[in-house]
Amino acid sequence: RQLILPRDPNLPPEVFHVLPIIGSAIQYGDDPINFFFKCREKYGDVFTFVLLGRKITVALGPKGSDMILGGKPNVVSAEEAYTHLTTPVFGKKVVYDCPNDSLMQQKKFVKFGLNTENFRVYMGMIEEETYQFISTDSAFVDTFNAPDRAWGSFNAVKSFAELTILTASRTLQGSEVRSKLDKTFAQRYNDLDGGFKPINFLFPSLPLPSYRRRDKAQQAMSRFYQDIIQRRRQRALGASDDNEDVEVEHDILAALDQQKYRDGRSLSDEEMAHIMIALLMAGQHTSSATSAWTLLHIADNVAVQQGLYEEQVKHFGLPGGKGFKPMEYEDLKDLPLLDAVIRETLRIHPPIHSIFRKVLQDLPVPQSLAAPSESGAFVIPKGHFVLASPSVAGMDPNIWQNPTEWDPYRWVSGGSGAGAAFKDEISGEKVDYGFGMISKGTESPYQPFGAGRHRCIGESFAYVQLGSIIATVIRNLEMRLPAGRGVPPQNYHTMIVMPKSPCDIEFRRRA
Ligand code: HEM
């Protein structure tokens, strides 16, 4: 019947595939961006592909992003798309295991802790952790102290994943977590992380050992945070006999402890614990991938590396020299090249290449985005998933000049000028090509942090963390890629886009 009946002309075009259930899983899984660009050439900005039995409708371009990220939560739902993946990892009653309105309140609670006063404190902590790491970690210590300044090398992904968790735990997660980053914590973290893979998204429950390990680790991690909360309470009441040297004021648990839902209810210990796990997972791979990519590009580009070093010296004085001043939160806005290298890296390598929603009510596609004919409109049926792609947006040749080129100067006023070729119909306003001029709206072509109601709340923290780490590395190390190697290609087989191996960076201590 399906073969004989014509397809409903109001359905978006479907990508041709040979294998019925598998659909385009291989092309999408291997290189989603290439797949999307090819489909766009053939079918336009809106098309449906089959991914292991699910129908996924992709909407590209500013209007496509707007339809998905600006959609109403009763029409396009994040929780329906993600809960089977995230709830076993984060735990119950938070994020996508609660009504959307509760998530919005939980995001506000966390934002309360992500404030300027805390960021001021975090800067020094992150700089200290980074210096400690690059001067004492086993991958760095010998080269760092080599009297002849011989070159050594480190693995960008592995080392900066370690440094990300050290700095996030020292700041957001709190000193008890930082002091307990031992083998047990690492094992639990790895088991939880093992449940955060594309296979878990596609097959929510399988009788595999990794699923059992994930569930056990979730329970252990939840207890771990709830213990910290209870010990803090006892200490506050003077009823604790432990001598833990804790500094709790500026972390997110302290912020959550003061919050109440609109109905007057405080967060339960379990909710607080699960929010902390969610933050750990949300910030870890995204920030560590971004620092690895940024350093790989900097190592590959001597001129930018020199520019960054000179920016540091100009602003703070010679590292270790007379009059040298440490970097503070307020300095971040006066370091345009440091800001631009992070911004540009996130344009080309947004860690999340596909943002999903589940369609809960038939969704008409605006005619200005795509339509079967002048009079008709496409309708995305209830039950489909919709997908917006920050990677396609950031590399769109209709918007960016030389989109595949990593050129941080496109963001700097008076820089290369190879910024975004904005057209008025896209932004709705006049936009110059310079630094910080891109809107944050759902139609923006720059969406590494998403847009709309589910937009990331960790952006400012990510800039604090990445800015302090990169500045500290630049002040202390010279870097280069091994001879004959460029920046590695992207690996899309992980949940977050990582550099493919090998991804070593050669380094020596600055003279
Ligand atoms: C949401 C990216 C760091 C917490 C998001 C989304 C993106 C994103 C694309 C939107 C997801 C969607 O719409 O489905 C990033 C990147 C980061 C980063 C690129 C670093 C470079 C962080 C950090 C935290 C965090 C450090 C925590 C401190 C969150 C939360 C949400 C979110 C709570 C909201 C989820 C929702 O409302 O559904 N992030 N993130 N992120 N992120 Fe981040």
From TrEMBL:
<keyword id="KW-0479">Metal-binding</keyword>
<dbReference type="InterPro" id="IPR017972">
    <property type="entry name" value="Cyt_P450_CS"/>
</dbReference>
<protein>
    <recommendedName>
        <fullName>Lanosterol 14-alpha-demethylase</fullName>
    </recommendedName>
</protein>
<dbReference type="GO" id="GO:0020037">
    <property type="term" value="F:heme binding"/>
</dbReference>
<dbReference type="InterPro" id="IPR001128">
    <property type="entry name" value="Cyt_P450"/>
</dbReference>
<keyword id="KW-0812">Transmembrane</keyword>
<keyword id="KW-0560">Oxidoreductase</keyword>
<feature type="binding site" description="axial binding residue">
    <location>
        <position position="456"/>
    </location>
    <ligand>
        <name>heme</name>
    </ligand>
</feature>
<dbReference type="GO" id="GO:0016020">
    <property type="term" value="C:membrane"/>
</dbReference>
<keyword id="KW-0472">Membrane</keyword>
<keyword id="KW-0408">Iron</keyword>
<dbReference type="InterPro" id="IPR050529">
    <property type="entry name" value="CYP450_sterol_14alpha_dmase"/>
</dbReference>
<dbReference type="GO" id="GO:0004497">
    <property type="term" value="F:monooxygenase activity"/>
</dbReference>
<keyword id="KW-0503">Monooxygenase</keyword>
<dbReference type="Pfam" id="PF00067">
    <property type="entry name" value="p450"/>
</dbReference>
<comment type="similarity">
    <text>Belongs to the cytochrome P450 family.</text>
</comment>
<dbReference type="InterPro" id="IPR002403">
    <property type="entry name" value="Cyt_P450_E_grp-IV"/>
</dbReference>
<keyword id="KW-0349">Heme</keyword>
<dbReference type="GO" id="GO:0016705">
    <property type="term" value="F:oxidoreductase activity, acting on paired donors, with incorporation or reduction of molecular oxygen"/>
</dbReference>
<keyword id="KW-1133">Transmembrane helix</keyword>
<dbReference type="InterPro" id="IPR036396">
    <property type="entry name" value="Cyt_P450_sf"/>
</dbReference>
<dbReference type="GO" id="GO:0005506">
    <property type="term" value="F:iron ion binding"/>
</dbReference>
